[in-house]
Amino acid sequence: MTELRSCKDFCDCLSDYLDGEIEEDECRLIEEHLDKCPPCELIFQSLRKTVDICGQGVSDRIPEDVRMRLKSFLREHCGKQ
Amino acid sequence: MTDKANEDRATIQQVLKGDYEAFETLVEKYQGRMYRHLRKMVKDDQCAEDLLQETFLNAYRGLEGFSGNSSFSTWLFRIATNNALMFLRKHRPESVQYDDEVRDYENPSLMTASPEFVSTPLDILLSEEGLRQIEEAIDSLPVLYRSVLVLRDVEGFTLEEVSIIMETSIPAVKSRLHRARNAVREILTAYYFDRELSA
After folding, report:
1. CA end-to-end span of chain A
2. How far is it, in rounded angstroms, from Cα B145 to Cα B134?
3. Which of A9, B43, B64, B174 has the most C-beta neighbours closer than 10 Å?
4. CA dist., res. B62 & res. B79, Å (int)
5. What is the per-residue pLDDT for B98?
């Protein structure tokens, strides 16, 4: 990683930080920066919230008619009746 | 290997021995997630359904070639993603022109944040209106960014698995994910800021 100097440098690391992709020493630098920089802390909190709600926010419900047509299609094309 | 991956592997062995019902259990298990992923990629319910059928048919016919180097779900999502990208390149080539996407996302706006989004309770963020905002924010991303975000943050694949599914490098996945997450974050931030103002 390049040397962390500006708020932008720190914010550019936050996605990797959330994924646990940052080395321990650099994590400490980020955490120290977030502790003393409210705007970056706010960006971090909102990024974390975004990731959390994206994970819960898109349904994997499949409509019954789509499910039934898939089942019929596969039975027909896989040679099973 | 996880219990789930072992379970899939055992089911695949049953399918390869001619047990079609075992294949149907795999379909039952993954069809919801697969349909969600394809809908997010092509943003059209009918096309997503066609691609869903094609993907499972490809999987059934190619099951003997499943090497087991990755999990079955990674292998299956890779087939689906390839099918969707081929469809988009054929029917909507403008939607997958990588250079355009890079140009649009090369210089994202200065990062903004406001406390309204962060302080909004989860029951509002995940209300019917909240869910619509999340869906629209994700749908507004270019397909290669949208796909990476959905695979990582919605489907829960690791960065390495996303790189396998998307057939791209891990640094490229990280870069797209960073931009995609921040684009969604900024859209939601703006929405909840406006919502608070108009309350």
Report:
1. 57
2. 15
3. B174
4. 10
5. 61
Which residue of chain A is at minimal alpha-carbon distance from B139? A58
Residues of chain A in contact with residue B156, where contact means CB-CB under 8 angstroms, are: 55
Of the candidates B60, B130, B182, the beta carbon closest to that of A78 is on B60
Task: Give the whole-angstrom CA distance, residue A30 versus residue A14.
Answer: 8
CA-nearest residue of chain B to A17?
Answer: B178
Q: What residue type is B27 in one-letter code?
A: V
Residue of A nearest to B146 (CA): A54
CA distance A60 to chain B (A): 5
Query: Where does the pLDDT of residue B155 fall: very low under 50, low under 70, confident under 90, or very high at 90 and above?
Result: very high
Instruction: Name every residue whose Cβ is closer than 8 Å to that of residue B133 and which is 6 or more positions away in sequence.
Output: B187, B188, B191
pLDDT tens, residue by residue, B85-97: 999 999 988 887 6
Alpha-carbon distance B117 to A42, whole Å? 10
ipTM of the shown complex: 0.90
Separation between Cα atoms, residue A45 and residue A29, nearest integer Å? 17
A11: chain B residues, CB-CB within 8 Å: 111
A2-26 CB burial, b ≥16 within 10 A, e <16: eeeeeeeebbbbbbbbbbeebeeeb
* Residue A49 touches partner B, C-beta closer than 8 Å: yes
Chain B interface, mutation test: which of A9, A10, A54, A68, most B Cβ atoms within 10 Å? A54
A57 Cα to chain B: minimum distance (Å): 6
